[in-house]
Amino acid sequence: MPKTIIEPFRIKAVEPIRLTTAEQRRELLEAARLNVFKLHADDVLIDLLTDSGTGAMSANQWAAMMQGDESYAGAQSFFRLEKVIQRITGYPFFIPTHQGRAAERILFSVATKPGDVIPNNTHFDTTRANLEYGQAVAVDLVIPEGLQPQNTHPFKGNIDLERVEDLLKRDADRIPFGMITITNNSGGGQPVSLENIRAYSELLKRYDKPLILDVCRFAENAMFIKLREPGMENRTIESIVHEMFSYADGCTMSAKKDGMVNIGGFIALRDERWVEAARNLLILTEGFPTYGGLAGRDLDALAVGLEEVMQEDYLRYRLRTAEYLGQRLQETGIAIVQPPGGHAVYLDAKDFLPHLPKEQYPAWSLCNALYLQGGIRGVEIGSVMFGKRLDDGTETYHSMELVRLAFPRRVYTQSHFDYVAEVLCELKQNAKSVRGVRITKQTRFLRHFTAECDWA
């Protein structure tokens, strides 16, 4: 592939970026209590905190917003989006929500009870938190290669079917459904093969258990299948997407990812199980079933975005961007999760900062150092996000210490990613000077969003 990435779009509007000095950034980070979530966005030079809701919408999406029907009940915007989702997923029942964690909360509230066990390749933070808030048990069963950052298995997001079957044999009566996250965000944005989804579905069916997909990045996963799975190279993205959905009984989605919008989510289901209860809870907490906490214009923008995300030129550019940054970092000896994911590059903080013990949260510390070095904001996928402080004061720690550099869709150009690579190269040369942290304040759930820290 050429080294120059041609973005398959033209830019019609620009937003200024404010430059800061190293001294300013140190003051800002300390005022934020060493938590990059607490920084003001205009104090960030390149913001790779998340790809959720941070993308740029297309001209066609902005045009679609002008026909948004803001009727409280029965708005045409709902029916336009419903038609698109039914065509893509094949599921007749569609429940809009304001974002993905609302979809998770509603579905889990009506489909699980305390003590239930939910297998997944890897639950992401809000998925796990919503299950645990309802006193269910979230079980991660990704294949062993998915926990080995340098392993180059093409589908490291696959679920370990032997471990799933062992769990079903032991606890089938406690399992209301199985889940799988595509792509596997917590494990490096790694894809799941079509073969694995099919086999997982067949296994669950033998135990009369439905399969629910977490489809935040369904189109990126489909593109990986086209590029990596034997026999898929001549298929269209949409046909692969249809087959992925055909093996499942429903899905949840944060549409702020592959929906190409800044807000929105949904539940889609194949049959009427859970539908009435979910809609009743939606009315109580989100809004009427034909708007679900969203404006009509948001529903129309999402209808267009779900079509645009399956364009192959866009997906090739999207995946190539991650591959390009990954190659630049590897050339300078920086360890990343291999192969690069679809929406992000994940730095291996244990390798980057070997002098920091787990008690000083290497990935969190690397996030802070990256901001101090070049004004770049990433997010920790490590022991602050997935560890816990137990009642006796001891800590649990995550198996991997990763820093995710997530790419907002259609926002940054190749020169921005060249800058990121240069900053990381400079930081690597001074890695021994990076200081660890200790947590001084935290919440029980999703502590990484609001935690306060001090230097260790």
Tally of domains: 2
Spatial separation of the terminal alpha carbons: 44 Å
**What is the CATH class designation of the largest domain?**
Alpha Beta
* Mass-distribution shape: globular
Structural class comes to alpha/beta
List the total number of helices: 16
The CATH architecture of the largest domain would be: 3-Layer(aba) Sandwich
Q: What is the topology, as strand order, of the major beta sheet?
A: 2-8-7-6-5
CATH topology of the largest domain: Aspartate Aminotransferase, domain 2
Percentage of residues in DSSP E strands: 5-15%
Average per-residue pLDDT, rounded, comes to 95
CATH superfamily of the largest domain: Type I PLP-dependent aspartate aminotransferase-like (Major domain)
Low-pLDDT sequence parts: none
The main pleated sheet reads as: 5 strands, mixed
Task: Write the topology of this structure.
Layout: H1 22-31, E1 46-47, H2 59-65, H3 76-89, E2 93-97, H4 100-111, E3 117-120, H5 125-133, E4 137-140, H6 161-171, E5 178-181, H7 194-206, E6 211-214, H8 218-228, H9 237-246, E7 250-254, E8 265-269, H10 275-285, H11 296-308, H12 312-331, E9 344-348, H13 349-352, H14 362-374, E10 376-377, E11 379-381, H15 383-386, E12 388-389, E13 395-396, E14 402-406, H16 414-429, E15 437-441, E16 452-455
Parallel strand pairs: 1-10, 3-4, 5-6, 6-7
Antiparallel strand pairs: 2-8, 7-8, 9-14, 11-14, 12-13, 15-16
Helix pairs in contact: 1-14, 2-11, 3-11, 4-5, 4-10, 6-7, 8-9, 8-12, 12-16, 14-16
